[in-house]
Design goal:
The complex is a heterodimer. By secondary structure, chain A is an alpha+beta fold. Chain A is built from 5 helices and 4 strands. The N and C termini of chain A lie far apart (59 Å). Chain B has 5 domains: 106 residues, 3-Layer(aba) Sandwich (Glutaredoxin); 210 residues, Rossmann fold (3-Layer(aba) Sandwich), CATH 3.40.50; 84 residues, Ubiquitin-like (UB roll) (Roll), CATH 3.10.20.600; 89 residues, NADH-ubiquinone oxidoreductase 51kDa subunit, iron-sulphur binding domain (de novo design (two linked rop proteins)), CATH 1.20.1440.230; 55 residues, Alpha-Beta Plaits (2-Layer Sandwich), CATH 3.30.70. Chain B is 39% helix and 15% strand. The longest helix of chain B has 19 residues. Chain B is globular. The N and C termini of chain B lie far apart (66 Å). The mean pLDDT of chain B is 92. Classes of the chains: A alpha+beta, B alpha/beta. At the A-B interface, helix 1, strand 1, helix 3 and strand 2 of A face strand 1, helix 3, helix 5 and helix 6 of B.
């Protein structure tokens, strides 16, 4: 290591992996992973999020799981919570929908309305 | 490096390691593999989280779920419920002693124990994997060194530290920047930068936790200090009784050398610095700087008169700067964030934070870091969670064998160097031992003096003979053989030892006696005049008595090993105190709570 740039490279590379341990505001993706969620295919959805975050090298995004919220007929469901904003709930999520949610909602801040629970109940 | 969705942080500090955290890690890894989660969830061994009372501690991120007292058998449930299905294991979640609030819905920082803390020196402890230099770098590690070497002159570095107001955390509170200035001013071909990690106060473990939890922070600070004073060689003097700390230091030094952060031509600036480790054999006096240097040189660990000060003639006869571990833990932050930031924490005369090892009669035993100036009461009641078993707080001992006891009436004083000294205690290295109504203050003084008598190196007479005479008097008092005039004799001896002993060990050894006499003179007098121990602690001054709660069941009489209890069936029993050996068997046997000590 000979320069500040070398140090910075290591810092960046590692930080994205351990950022979740800082108590900072991060975008949170919370996926329902109860029996109903898993049975409906929540795991591939979660893995798709992981892939997408890694591919885009996104920092400040965490993926976590939660239990059953009671609306099993909408599974797999998940919440995207941006810092300081109301949570947005997506339903019947399939892995192929994930890149759009990441690109439009998490990166650019515009929820993908047609996938949300609001769209289904209208 | 793989991207993981969840990190399981398991405390690998000495406290949690001794309650079995190594087995937890093994089990987690095995269970994750079984469930096919090994590429999604990472298990990290970290340094101390501070809440040793609740150990072994496990934190699961990104949720930040705080599990306490986790056993190997609990691991399967955490993996299958929390990590696989996203359901937190409620029964293992930490619950605050005092408020009875579960930490389930709160972030870690809002738990009572952490709420009033501010972590500067311990910022990475319990957050990073101490054996992974990349994680240290990710949280701004070695950036301060880069900044110092590439953007600052040695004088600027010293000025920043001087302006920050940082004072030595080993106990004496000497301004760190001044020390560096003196060492810089000495002209010599070879200078040394020494880290004093010979933590010896009974009950103190903040240096150990810092070395275990964030070893790179110490290495970085030493390199910065080496640059500032013009030293190319550093030594860490650490106790051999700290095996985990030693192992992590060795690993950290190897990693730093590998990255070129130690060694020659660091950051291409032509600055060379390398660090060696020297293990101490656990002599308390070796924490004294001149004795410490003698020990590094391979000589007997005995202090020397000062001057010459180490900054002029220290290790191997060369100018040397010595700093304590916790002091060094603050350096990188001061360089990165600036003196003004550091000064904004704490009080004008005591800037920054201080780490304390809370122990004794307190609910949340563990490691806390608070801004200077925090009232003692906050530390004991809010962070420490108060005294267990509904007992009453009596005093807190700070500064170990060199410090003193602070009574309940002074609980509202702010914790800073000068205030503590003014009440006859001292900041010390940061041991804080809490005592309740069952502790006898005479016996506490005897305990600490017993420690210093053992640890006196014997070189100077006041310490070698004087402290022993004091101990003998104290022993007599606790055995009920105290005489009128003993207190005055203790005070006289104490004053002459303080003014004539060679090093800090002897000069401060009488402090625990003086401060207990100052605040608890009535206890001394009760021992001497009434042959009574108000705390019911000193065995020789106690009598076992059977009260009228006695139902005459004869159970105690049958159990008494010396047969000193007599009485009819269903009649009041009596203890013959002349034969009683005060073993306590009768109290343990009695079902009616009829036997008391008085």
């Amino acid at each position: 290591m000979k320069s500040l740039a070398d140090l910075e490279a290591i810092r960046k590379r590692t930080l994205e992996n351990i950022n979740m341990r800082k108590d900072e505001d991060a975008a949170r993706v919370v996926i329902g992973m109860a029996t109903c969620g898993i049975a409906a295919g929540a795991r591939p959805v979660m893995l798709a999020f992981m892939d997408e975050i890694k591919k885009r090298n996104l920092q400040h995004v965490t993926v976590s799981q939660t239990g059953c919220v009671g609306m099993c007929r909408y599974e797999p469901m998940l919440d995207v919570i941006l810092p300081g904003q109301e949570k947005v709930t997506y339903i019947h999520v399939k892995p192929e929908m994930v890149p759009r949610i990441v690109a439009e909602h998490i990166v650019n801040g515009h929820p993908v309305t047609e996938y949300t629970i609001g769209a289904a109940e209208d | 490096m793989e991207l993981y969705r969840s990190h399981v942080l398991v405390c690998g500090g000495t406290g949690c390691s001794s309650s079995g955290s190594a087995n937890l890690i093994e089990r987690f890894e095995q269970q994750l593999k079984e469930k096919g989660l090994e590429n999604e969830v990472k298990v990290v061994r970290t340094g101390c989280f501070g809440l040793c009372e609740a150990g072994p501690v496990v934190i699961v991120y990104p949720e930040g779920t705080f599990y306490s007292r986790v056993k190997v058998d609990d691991v399967d449930e955490i993996v299958s419920e929390h990590l696989l299905k996203g359901r937190k294991v409620q029964r293992l979640i930490y619950v605050d002693h005092k408020t009875k609030e579960s930490s389930a819905q709160k972030s870690l920082a809002e738990i009572g124990f952490y709420k009033q803390q501010q972590r500067v020196a311990l910022r990475n402890c319990g957050v990073i994997d101490p054996e992974n230099i990349d994680e240290y770098i990710a949280f701004d590690g070695y950036r301060a060194l880069a900044k110092a070497l590439t953007e600052m002159t040695p004088e600027q570095v010293i000025k920043e530290v001087l302006d920050s107001g940082l004072r030595g955390r080993g106990g004496a509170g000497f301004p760190t920047g001044k020390k560096w200035q003196f060492a810089r001013a000495s002209k010599a071909e070879q200078k040394y930068f020494v880290c004093n990690a010979d933590e010896g106060d009974p009950g103190a473990f903040m240096d150990r936790s810092l070395l275990e939890g964030d070893p790179h922070a110490i290495l970085e600070a030493m390199a910065i200090g080496g640059y500032a004073i013009g030293a190319s060689e550093g030594w860490i003097y650490v106790r051999a009784e700290y095996p985990i700390a030693v192992k992590r230091l060795e690993k950290a030094i190897a990693q730093a050398r590998d990255y070129g952060l130690l060694g020659e031509n660091i950051f291409d600036t032509g600055f060379n610095f390398d660090i060696h480790i020297r293990l101490g054999a656990g002599a308390f006096v070796c924490g004294e700087e001149t004795a410490l240097m003698a020990s590094i040189e391979g000589r007997r660990g005995e202090p020397k008169p000062k001057p010459p000060f180490p900054a002029v003639k220290g290790l191997f006869e060369s100018p040397t700067n010595i700093n304590n571990v916790e002091t060094l833990g603050n350096i990188a932050q001061i360089i990165l964030k600036g003196a003004d930031w550091f000064k904004s924490i704490g009080t004008p005369a005591s800037t920054g934070t201080k780490v304390f090892a809370l122990g004794g009669k307190i609910n949340n035993t563990g490691l806390v870091e608070i801004p200077m100036g925090t009232p003692l009461r906050t530390i004991i009641e809010d962070i420490g969670g108060g005294i267990p078993n509904g007992k009453k707080f009596k005093a807190v001992q700070t500064g170990g064998p060199s410090g003193g006891c602070i009574p309940a009436s002074l609980l509202d004083i702010p914790v800073e160097y000068d205030t503590l000294t003014s009440v006859g205690a001292m900041m010390g290295s940061g041991g804080m031992i809490v005592m309740d109504e069952d502790n006898c203050m005479v016996d506490i003084a005897r305990f600490f003096l017993d420690f210093t008598v053992d640890e006196s190196c014997g070189k100077c007479t006041p310490c070698r003979v004087g402290t022993r005479r004091m101990l003998e008097i104290l022993q007599r008092i606790t055995e009920g053989k105290g005489e009128e005039g003993d207190i005055e004799k203790l005070e006289e001896l104490a004053e002459s030892i303080k003014s004539s002993a060679l090093c800090g060990l002897g000069q401060t050894a009488p402090n625990p006696v003086l401060s207990t006499i100052k605040f608890f003179r009535d206890e001394y007098e009760a021992h001497i005049r009434e042959k009574r121990c108000p705390a019911h602690h000193c065995q020789a001054l106690l009598n076992y008595v059977i009260t009228d709660k006695c139902r005459g069941c004869t159970a105690c009489a049958r159990k008494c090993p010396v047969g000193c209890i007599s009485g009819e069936l269903k009649g009041q029993h009596v203890i013959d105190t002349s034969k009683c050996i005060k073993c306590g068997t009768c109290i343990a046997t009695c079902k009616f709570g009829a036997i008391i000590k008085e």
